[in-house]
Structure formats: structure tokens, C-alpha cells
Design brief:
Two copies of one chain form a homodimer. With about 210 residues, the first copy, chain A, is α/β, with parallel strands linked by helices. In chain A, about 50% of the residues lie in helices and about 10% in strands. In chain A, helix 1 crosses helix 8, helix 2 packs across helix 3 and helix 6 crosses helix 7. The longest helix of chain A has 23 residues. Chain A is globular. The interface between A and B is medium-sized, with 28 and 28 residues. Strand 5 of chain A pairs antiparallel with strand 5 of chain B, so a sheet runs across the interface.
């Protein structure tokens, strides 16, 4: 493994996965991409940012309208003009994710990046989960979700992300054998989770030198 | 968390999980139980060691003969006389695992210990997996399995252990959300895997002090 590493973070809603990814990137001194992917995809495609926000991590549906797009504007992608809008968004993000991975080390959150980059040799696939009670505590404190709605909110996101992931990768999220490292962040918290991932990254770096 | 910690290691065949558990126990200075569970269960039950070896991590089957047993000899278990032999073995091992966990810190490999001890507050549930190529390399080198039979051997053990785990826990092995930490040992090797688990254990110890 060269110094060029790509770390993908898949995460359950309310597990702190995004924050863990952000702190990890900071600790390793490499770029971090979450919502930034939306800005980049919008810039490359000529689609509005709102479209990417609305479609973000949602599975395709035949009921969704399709939007005509000039392939020249869609990040160089051809043949996508007749696809449903979600699929266009996925393909454009797919393109952006590959460009970022080619450019240099980074941490990428969500958006099936683990699947999109599966052939990259220096890929480290991480999954962050957490127990329901910890997730409820987190989203009520951090996102201000009311306690009454919290469990329903977690279930809604679980279902949406699972549908999205399954639709594009043909496998369910959270199957240990599909990742390098899966971590329950609930009991140890954000900083210790970053430390565990760093220990894994160190292991990969040492193994590559042998 | 007090200093009393129980670490259970579930593992795919050929992932090096047993060795990782053994080295982890050594590093932490706590006892390690794998085949030792068989000896203890045999001693407590009055069953022969051969019975435990034959039944080890195998699911129950209605086709299996049942063996009469004196409940007084079966680790103090009552009402198990009419159960199929596999279930008797499971219950006796269950008893032994709980006794060990009550006694003090330890590392326990396999035998649904993560499920058996699920109510223990200081339980750390680890799952070790590895890619097929790495598992084949390991079992041909370490266990002397012929390369021709290796993949079939891995599949046979995967199926057997999965049946055993599902039979007694009503869930499949390797679902990330059911563990604290899941680790693919293939690319980083045994020692680095031990380091990653240690980083998690450290995190739990720090969190308990807060």
C-alpha cells in the first residue's frame, strides 16, 4: 500500500459515523467528503444542487419522473439521458467518487462508495453502527429530533439507506464480511472509534511495507 | 466497566480468529478458552470428552440419538435428560461459559458465547472474518488442507457453524450490528488484528471511567 488510501464510511443513522469520518480525516490529514459530494456532483453535472439533495441516498423508483440531461454536462457520462433521475444522480456521484479516489487519499461517507470503489487496492471499508438507545440519544441531542419521534426517525432512515444500498449494490448493508472493519460506536464514543480505525489503518500500512 | 471484561470471539473458519483470541488473551494477561471448554464441560457433565468433540459447534438434528444422562452429573442442569444429545452438549457448555464469565476476565472463542453472555454488561463481542483467498491460504499452510479441497472445506465449515449459530441464537452470524467489533484479518494479519481489538478494549475502559 502506498500512502494513497481511500477510507469509505458506511453508517447507520445516529451512529456518529459522519463525525467519526470527519475526525479521522482530520487526524490523518486527508480530505473528507460527505455533503461535499453533492456540491461537486452538482457542479460537474449542470443539475441543480437541490436535485442532489432531494435524491441523496434514495433508491430509484419507477414512479419518479425522468429529467432530460445533456450528457456533455453530466460529468462526461453518456447514455444516461433516459434513466430515472435517481439513477442519473447515482451515476454522476459514482463518477465524482472515482475522480476523488484517483486524485489522492480521502475519507468518503455513504453513497455506496465502498461498492463503487471495490476494485481499488488501497480501499479500507468501514461500517459504523450503534444500538437503538444510543442512536436515539444521539439524534435527540445532536439533531434536535423529539424523543417521541426518534425511534420512528431511525427506522425511516434505516429503511431508506438499506433500500438505496441494496438497490445499487445487490447486497444488504451491515454484513461484516463485506467490510474491513465494523464498529459499534455507542459504548466507546467518537474519539475512541477514530482510534480503533486508526489502529486498523496502521495495520494496513505495516502490512504493505512487508 | 470494572477490570472484569469478557471478550467473545466469533470467527469464520480460516480467518485466524482462534489465534487472534489466544494472542489477545496473552497480551491482556487473562485466560483463553477454546477447546478448553470441551475439557471443562466433559469434567462437569460426566459425559466423555469424545462426545463434546463430536458434537462441537454442530446444530441439533432430530435424527441424532439421545443419550440418557444423570442430571446430577450434567453440571447441575435438570430437565435435560430427554433432549437430543446436541442440545445437552449446548446446555452443558452454556453452563460452563457462564461460570467462567462469572469467575473473571477471559477470552472465549465460538460456541455462541456472545449470545449466551448477551446480558453481561462488560461483554465485548468480536467477529473475525477474512476473504476466501486468505482463508484458503491459511488453512492450506496452517492446517495442511490440500489446495484442491480447501474452498470446499471452508464452505463446509461456514455452513456448519452458521447452522449451529442460527439454531441456538435465531440470528445469522456475521451481522455487524450484533457485535461490538468486526474485523477482516486477511490484509493486516494476526498481530495487527490483536492491536485493533486492544484499541477497542482501551476505548471501553476509558468510557467506563467517565
Amino acid at each position: 500500500m502506498t500512502n494513497h488510501i481511500i477510507i469509505t464510511i458506511s453508517r447507520q443513522y445516529g451512529s456518529g459515523g459522519r463525525l467519526i469520518g470527519e475526525k479521522l480525516a482530520e487526524t490523518l490529514g486527508i480530505p473528507f467528503y460527505d455533503k461535499e459530494l453533492i456540491t461537486l456532483a452538482a457542479e460537474q453535472s449542470g443539475f441543480s444542487r437541490e436535485i442532489f439533495e432531494r435524491m441523496d441516498e434514495r433508491a430509484s423508483s419507477s414512479l419518479l419522473y425522468t429529467l432530460s440531461v445533456n450528457p456533455g454536462m453530466a460529468g462526461g457520462l453518456t447514455g444516461i439521458a433516459d434513466l430515472p433521475l435517481n439513477d442519473k444522480v447515482f451515476l454522476i456521484q459514482n463518477n465524482v467518487i472515482k475522480q476523488l479516489a484517483d486524485k489522492g487519499s480521502c475519507v468518503i461517507v455513504g453513497r455506496c462508495a465502498d461498492y463503487i470503489l471495490k476494485e481499488y487496492p488501497n480501499l479500507i471499508k468501514v461500517f459504523i453502527c450503534s444500538d437503538m438507545t444510543d442512536r436515539i440519544e444521539r439524534i435527540t441531542k445532536v439533531y434536535g429530533v423529539s424523543f417521541t419521534n426518534a425511534e420512528r426517525e431511525v427506522q425511516k432512515y434505516d429503511k431508506r439507506r438499506s433500500n438505496y444500498y441494496s438497490f445499487y449494490t445487490h447486497t444488504k448493508p451491515g454484513i461484516a464480511a463485506n467490510y474491513d472493519l465494523c464498529l459499534n460506536s455507542g459504548q466507546i464514543g467518537i474519539d475512541a472509534s477514530v482510534e480503533v480505525i486508526r489502529a486498523y489503518v496502521e495495520g494496513r500500512r505495516r502490512a504493505a511495507k512487508k
